Amino acid sequence: MIAIPRRYTVSQVCGYVKGKSAIPMKTRTGGELIQDFLETYEIPFVFGNPGTTETTFLAAVAASKATYVLSLHESSAVGIAAGYALIAGKPSIVSLHTYPGLANGMFNMRNALMSGVPMLVIAGQQDSRFLIHNPVLGAPNTRLAETATKYAYEVTRTDDLAVALQRCYLQARLQPTGPVFLSIPMNFMLEQTEHTRFKKTRIVEDTVPCAIGEVAGALEAVPRGQLAIVADYAVGAAHGIEAISRIATGLGADLYAAPFHVQGTVDPLHPNFRGQLPPTTRKINETLGRYQTLLLIGEKVDSFTYDGLSALPSALQVIQIAPAANQLGFDFPCDMAVLGDIRATLDALATALGAPAEPTGTRTVDEAALDARYPASGERPTDALILGVLRRLDRATHIVTEGSSEDAIVQDMAVRLGFRNVHFSPRGGGLGWAMPLGVGIGLATGKPAVCFVGDGGSLFSIHALWTAAKYRIPSIFVCFVNNEYRLLKDLWCNAMGTTIETTRFVGLDFSDPNVDLQRIAEGFGARTERIQDLAGIGDVLARAISHPGPSFLILDREP
Ligand SMILES: Cc1ncc(C[n+]2csc(CCOP(=O)(O)OP(=O)(O)O)c2C)c(N)n1
Ligand SMILES: [Mg+2]
User: Fold this and answer.
1) CA–CA dist 189, 36 (Å, integer)
2) Which residues pair with 44 in a beta bridge?
3) What domain range is 302 assigned to?
4) What pLDDT is recorded for position 362?
5) CA–CA distance from 379 to each of 250, 369, 374, 500 (Å)?
6) Alpha-carbon distance 69 to 117, whole Å?
7) What is the distance in A from the centroid of ligand 1 to the CA of 457?
8) 334, 414: one domain
9) CATH code of the domain covering residue 347
């Protein structure tokens, strides 16, 4: 039994239940809890697109210190938030409208999930007292969100709001990092609660297995030249590129970027770098089949096409280091599964191996080979224009690509030139990720990311331009215009054994009328220019880099 101090009467102690507390109890509205949450976690931006069910949430944000960053479509809101989170290294907050808004944001939430990008997506829900009637805008939000988040929850009473916000924020941040979804009935923003406590959790996760010496021993036992290291996105997220370089040198191992590694994971100028693993299972198998052991760092060896052979040869010894238990041995069985914080574990491993710190980028760029590969006088002279753009950029620039048929060459050029801050193609497969991602990176770094996008792909999130213009976010887009889904034509021909010239395509041309991307981009507030000749590229880029908002640069591609 709980003893009640004599100086209070029972009715005074219970008074708060009737709303007339004699004891000074701190109560807050749900909206005030949102403000407390934003302040506790020092969240500067709330990205979003609102509706009726978010009006009370918006009012709360308006009275907070955070800035609401409006996007005109949810795919842009989620993508910009993802770009911001990538740089900030902590979850961004996205506010979406109930079901219809959430549905529009879903494919980029899935892209974020597959790329381990942390974010807390909050959607409003109809008034909880009204949901029984299945009203307009009342909908199964969590069921929808489940396929694109690591956890999804709907708050059922205002008393739970503080716990739910903290849980979801932390879950997004903890390994495996990724989007988490929280649905909040709109009336909760106005209701009072005494459950108001927020704690800013200090996360201590620099875990290193005690048996790191055993891991080092297993790697050292691999015959020289028989070890392949494959680095997935976790290496980039943990800033582990230097440590991987040391380990590769120390062990004399070949170094690969995982297919769809989605952010920079290796130093492409490291002498042991052998490129990105190919995207088809058979070719991956053939490449890895040349080794006795694979050291996989991160989640997986992802692939795009199954062509009759498993990506990992069964005889291959697999040692995997991952930051989350549910990533270990999940995709393929492994011989040694090592759980540990990527940065801390790689540093410890490099030390255990006695691998010295090394100067970075000792390999010089073979400019002549690049010119020979992408000649201005070749079959595709605009390849040389793409190379011209990349050459003129500071190597610390963030390079973003997305699913157009130019991806392969932009990626090849960027890697050969030594760019490390690369974001190659969405791992969830949804176009409409790159443009907002570039805007989010620009917001977080204050410098323009350079995003290469196809004309078809651009149309899935082109409204990201407006947000960049509105908030003066530096951003540069190079858009390849061919008025078609060329990549899908090539894939069609591959699958059907036909040729581009003889195939009667349906559904893959958006010519007649052509989409006027220049006017669309201008309509969203972007500066536009055409990239037409090598001599003019320097000036075009200088104007784009000095512009405080978005520049949309059109590059007309040969058919
Ligand atoms: C949201 C979404 N819709 C459709 C697709 C399918 N898709 C993959 S590649 C592609 C064509 C891309 O066209 P574009 O960006 O113009 O590049 P191009 O193929 O012309 O080089 C499409 C539509 C997708 N991946 N995501
Ligand atoms: Mg196209």
Assistant:
1) 13
2) none
3) 212-353
4) 60
5) 43, 17, 9, 16
6) 19
7) 5
8) no
9) 3.40.50.1220
Q: Could you tell me if 240 and 321 lie in one domain?
A: yes
DSSP for 58-90, written as a single string: HHHHHTSSSEEEE-SSHHHHHHHHHHHHHHHSS
Q: Which residues contact 408 (CB under 8 A, 6 or more apart)?
A: none
Residues 143 and 291 in one domain: no
Nearest Cα residue to atom 23 of ligand 1: 485
Ligand lying nearest the CA atom of residue 431:
1
Domain boundary among 130, 158, 193: 193
- Ligand 2 centre to CA of 390 (Å) is 20
Weakly modelled stretches of the chain, pLDDT under 70 = 1-25, 359-362
Atom of ligand 1 nearest to the CA of 402: 15
> How many Å apart are CA 394 and CA 213, to the nearest integer?
40
Establish how many alpha carbons lie within 13 A of residue 122's alpha carbon, considering only the half-sphere containing its beta carbon.
31
Beta-strand runs (E) in 305-356: 317-322, 336-339
Packing angle, helices 241-251 and 342-352, rounded to 10? 30
Specify whether 139 is located in the same domain as 253.
no
- The residue whose CA has the least distance to atom 11 of ligand 1 is 485
Task: Assess whether the C-beta atom of 110 lies below 6 angstroms from ligand 1.
Answer: no
* Global pTM value: 0.94
Ligand 2 centre distance from Cα of residue 160 (Å): 48
Task: Let me know if residue 204 belongs to a domain.
Answer: no
For the chain, how many structural domains are there in total? 3
Is residue 11 assigned to a domain? no
Residues 316 and 393 in one domain: no
Does a structural domain hold residue 358?
Answer: no
Whether residue 349 is found in the same domain as residue 232: yes
Which two three-digit tokens encode residue 496?
Answer: 């059907």
Find the CATH number of the domain harbouring 470: 3.40.50.970
Q: Tell me what pLDDT residue 17 has.
A: 41
* Residue 205 within any structural domain of the chain: no
Q: Which ligand is nearest to the CA of 556?
A: 2
The answer, yes or no, to whether any atom of ligand 1 lies below 6 A from the CB of 403, is yes
pLDDT at 378: 85
| CA–CA separation, 84 and 106 (whole Å) | 18
* Ligand 1 lined by 408 (C-beta under 6 Å): no
By the CB criterion, residues less than 5 angstroms from ion ligand 2 are 454-456, 482
